[in-house]
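Researcher: Please translate sequence to structure tokens.
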Amino acid sequence: MIDVRVHSSRHLETKITYPISEHTSYDRDVNYYIFTPAQLHVCADFISDEAMLRKFQAHARYSSPEITLDELLDKGNRTSPLVLLESYTRQRVERSGDVADTIFMHELQTLSNSFRHESGIILSECKELAKENKLDELRGLLQDWYKETGYAMQRFRALLKMMRVFYPTGNRMVTAFEWADEAISLVVESTSLEMYLSLEPLFGELQESAYNLLRHSRAELGYRREQKYESVVSKGNRYSTEAVAYRSGVLKKWTQSVLYLTPVHSKAPQRVAGVLAGTAAAIAMTFATLAAIFAETFFLKNSMQWALLVILAYVFKDRIKEGLRAFFSRVVPRLLADQISSFISPRTGKRLSRTKVVIHIRKASDMPPEIQDKRLEDGNPFQDMLPQEDVVHYTRFVKIFKTEKDRTIGPWINAITVITRIRIDDWLKEMDDPNDVMYVASGDGDFEQQNSDRVYHVHLVITETSKKQDINDIHHYRIIMNKKGILRMETLDRP
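Model: Translation complete:
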């Protein structure tokens, strides 16, 4: 499943999740086709493939832990980060055994991520049940959320208290516990408050549940204020909301850092490019040398004919070298890739995936027929009468390796999420100013002057294919832009 969204006015973002298998490796091919109006000049005549490649930035992380609150609280579940933390803390305090601080912190981060992921799912369920007016199910969901989160935080904060006693002057581990505690508190507060607000039309039927959520949210805010955590807005300080937003971002990045995967880029494409450049120079020099030998053999040295032939040989040598370099750079590296990279697990050091990237900038008529047909859906029926669109074709050949899960380190790891961010600066350079003036007839027969944005439509077609797994998905999006950036995105997939 491909998730496409507008990340900012200058960035598009796609997310693709790849399951991790313990039994077999598999391949997936993802193609991005970005169709651009000819007047924007996003074409090979103005932009090189190498420059366009830099507009696509990809990074990956493990998918968020899918651990329900019931699984988290189950004391017999040895994969629950809360249960593992209870065991690790007890071992450290009783000095009956110990684990490395790194593993300790990983479980703290995993616990925070579990809360964040599960909170998002429960919030979505709450809004859906409220929308469908399923009061009994909604009442049960809210009661479970209130009780289970309260019980989970009670157990975790007992561990925090034990660590503070064990390290009375504080240390890095105590700080990690406090950061996890603060991050979880923020998640519970914001989720409870959003649930409460989503119940506004049902306050009459769900008054008790709604007030429980409000009390839950306020209790977490009061707890953080009591603990003197930084994520509390201070009265009378106009910069405190900014500081809290920054603090929330820092905590989120810290908790999710355990999910980040380390990319390792191969130097093979650069090495091949160097070999091909050397080959082009050698062929050109061979031609010049043979021409010089020919001149020496058939013409008197330093004669007019000899000089002309040597000069022409060196002129053609430079042209041959540049021509061969251009040919090799366009043809031969495609057999390898423009970019090769792997994602390495930070915990085990094992390679999880390998990616090859190839990029072209071509005309719409060079694209496969099914891509052209997809582009023309819900579009201009006279598109063929307009100048040909330019197309940026970006391909990722992905191989996911089979990986045996570690039962003690990250047993919750089930998938990799690859995020690709596309920077759209080049699409904006040739656009006209964003405002047009239009005259619209009013109700009394007069005309009113209105300002209107001058916009451009860029079409994005994405395919994900896998022959062995019988996957052949195709999606079509229309991106509406003006000179300031992306205004919005529309999905054009037909039901």
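Researcher: Any highlights?
Model: The chain has three domains: 2-54+345-491, 69-259, 264-335.
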